[in-house]
């Protein structure tokens, strides 16, 4: 099912509940998004084959598979699309699994449509935000406009939220940044999921920095406070 609007922002909704799906399609189309609706994992994979979605709203309990596996498959082929899980699963372990699989956000049902739309806007705005063209801190080079990061000559492959988190930490290099500030700036003030999403993303960044030949502890943990990017 496809609903085309003039905005050009493309959202794929993966939801098997007809009532919830129809309501979200109407709300998203009313907000001028171009919406496609998949009711199964197989249909979602077919629609994602063209890799032309800006954001995916993903239910986890699909009739022909688990949404977490679909999220992993999507991340294996596209590291720039924003993935927002929308699910009835409220267990913190499920949230951690989804975020570790590559999701950028985790929203539990029931939800307020106005809040979900605000989260969609915030994610797309942050993804497209442009900063200084080139930032260098030690061995790291960050091209904000091109959304690329290198350690020396090795380029890191980062998810959208990983890039935004690293960008913020690098902007405050050598300075402690509170957890609350990182959550508000990188996610948003409406985030109601587990703050473990921050720890998961930091762990992923550390691993990718180390894989590129940098120190695994380049991002220092400040217990009870937050994190600091070590500049030297």
Short recap of the structure:
The chain is α/β, with parallel strands linked by helices and 232 residues long. The chain contains eight helices and 15 strands.
Notes on the structure:
Helices cover 40% and strands 23% of the residues. It is α/β, with parallel strands linked by helices. The strands form four sheets. A six-stranded mixed beta sheet has the order 1-3-2-4-7-8, with helices on both faces. It is globular. The N and C termini lie far apart (52 Å). The model is unreliable at 2-6 (pLDDT under 50).
> How would you sum up the major sheet?
6 strands, mixed
Query: At the third CATH level, what is the topology name of the largest domain?
Result: Rossmann fold
Count structural domains. 2
Structural class: alpha/beta
Globular, elongated, flat, extended or rod-shaped: what is the shape?
globular
Q: CATH first level of the largest domain: which class? A: Alpha Beta
Task: Order the strands across the largest sheet as they lie in space.
Answer: 1-3-2-4-7-8
Could you outline the blueprint of secondary structure elements for this entry?
Blueprint: E1 2-3, E2 10-14, H1 18-30, E3 34-38, H2 41-48, E4 55-58, E5 61-62, E6 65-66, H3 67-77, E7 82-87, H4 92-100, E8 105-108, H5 113-128, E9 135-137, E10 140-143, E11 148-151, E12 154-156, H6 160-171, E13 177-178, H7 179-186, H8 196-211, E14 219-222, E15 226-229
Helix pairs in contact: 4-8, 6-8
């Amino acid at each position: 099912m496809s609903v085309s609007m003039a905005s050009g922002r493309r959202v794929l909704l993966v939801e098997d509940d007809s009532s919830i799906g129809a309501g979200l399609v109407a709300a998203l189309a009313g907000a001028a998004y171009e919406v496609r609706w998949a009711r199964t994992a197989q249909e979602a994979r077919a629609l994602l084959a063209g890799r032309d979605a800006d954001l995916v709203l993903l239910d986890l309990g699909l009739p022909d598979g688990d949404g977490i596996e679909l999220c992993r498959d999507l991340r294996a082929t596209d590291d720039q699309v924003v993935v927002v899980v929308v699910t009835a699963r409220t267990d913190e372990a499920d949230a951690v699994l989804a975020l570790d699989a590559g999701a950028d956000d985790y929203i539990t049902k029931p939800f307020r449509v106005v809040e979900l739309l605000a989260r969609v806007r915030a994610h797309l705005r942050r993804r497209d935000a442009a900063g200084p063209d080139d930032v260098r801190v030690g061995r790291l080079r960050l091209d904000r406009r091109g959304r690329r990061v290198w350690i020396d000559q090795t380029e890191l492959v980062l998810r959208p939220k990983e890039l935004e988190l690293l960008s913020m930490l690098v902007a405050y290099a050598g300075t402690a940044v509170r957890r609350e500030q990182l959550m508000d700036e990188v996610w948003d003030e409406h985030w109601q999921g587990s703050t473990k999403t921050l720890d998961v993303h930091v762990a992923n960044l550390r691993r990718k920095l180390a894989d590129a030949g940098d120190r695994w502890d380049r991002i220092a943990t400040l217990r009870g406070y937050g994190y600091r990017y070590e500049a030297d």
